[in-house]
């Protein structure tokens, strides 16, 4: 791994980051590695065990490969709807970029110690939260949902206090870019318009070059981000994923799922489900996620407002009003694409090959049926995939059988309307409705074993999650959550 490790972000200037070394883990050990992520990066199969690479030390923050330039970036943002001021990489360090067939990939160490942006934190990550981020990053990628990736976790006996005393870990994260809405908000809020312009020019040149040809590249940039965010949110909602802390500083400019903290996948379908125990007002409830994303896009639009070119013939007020209207228009792709993308995803989950009148009502009524008695979301769709061959297995999930039967008659009529072939439909639905998602109890089982020094369940679960549409060998991976799972809570410390 003798790469040059360029860092395009570092070229923006010292206002954007602080360069500093990692605070490594004492006596580190491997917890897990992702073969799929390593392959994405073009790393050799034995990268983790080659003595000359010292990968364990590098990804624990104790050593660097030549050319690596650790830095922490500054950003700001809105947290739970309120302006939070300056934030930044409080426990993450950018190492640089690795050239891959997919383009440059940035690597970050999460949990490598204090930075100037740690605020009251210790800059560390604990084993529990690192396992959750590692597994979910790779699980989302296997589901086909845009996400940051995770290469590996290293651990140490170093004690770290959260609600209780835990042990430290470092997770290595991977993405084409870790830039967030909050990066733009930071420089706009502080009136650093020259830096704001450099950031926009950098992002467009490196990640959205098609915007250069637009009459207003900044407006095109916002429209692009809005469209990608709409697609991402539709995928989240369709799979039953709850992010838990959709602050603007946790929103990726590339439309990636980023910052896995108090996330969760729905068990029983509850549109009002709040997965984050710290979210006392329910701002980030499952059903509210699409509107929160749109709110966050408005915050990004506000941050971009100073970048629109001035019109010397207009008054300052009129000029600002016109610029604001352009940016609001750039958000329309979200309003248009999100419902269309979600309906398309739900059609696929229901095995509908064509678009017909009444599909939205059929989908909405299906979701209401699930919500009425909190039917398990993942299992219901998996059984719906086999409805033609095993209708009773699906029917048994519903307490209100007459209501299900009434909906099922409409569903069967809709399938007949397009001449659906059962075998073909089942194959397509099984490839869209996962058997396994990273439910909290599955993660918790792997965490408990890891905290006892046994990392085998982390690796086993990673393999299962890498093939989410296959029936797992261990039936419990795709089964109903155990009763004790109802008492699991995840918060911002997760």
UniProtKB/TrEMBL annotation:
Pfam families found in the cross-reference section: SelO
Protein name: Protein nucleotidyltransferase YdiU
Transcription among keywords: no
Species for this entry: Paucibacter sediminis
Gene name tied to this protein: ydiU
Catalytic activity line of the entry: L-tyrosyl-[protein] + UTP = O-(5'-uridylyl)-L-tyrosyl-[protein] + diphosphate; L-seryl-[protein] + ATP = 3-O-(5'-adenylyl)-L-seryl-[protein] + diphosphate; L-histidyl-[protein] + UTP = N(tele)-(5'-uridylyl)-L-histidyl-[protein] + diphosphate; L-seryl-[protein] + UTP = O-(5'-uridylyl)-L-seryl-[protein] + diphosphate
Residues annotated as binding ATP: 88, 90-91, 110, 122-123, 173, 180, 259
Domain of life: Bacteria
Keyword Transmembrane helix recorded: no
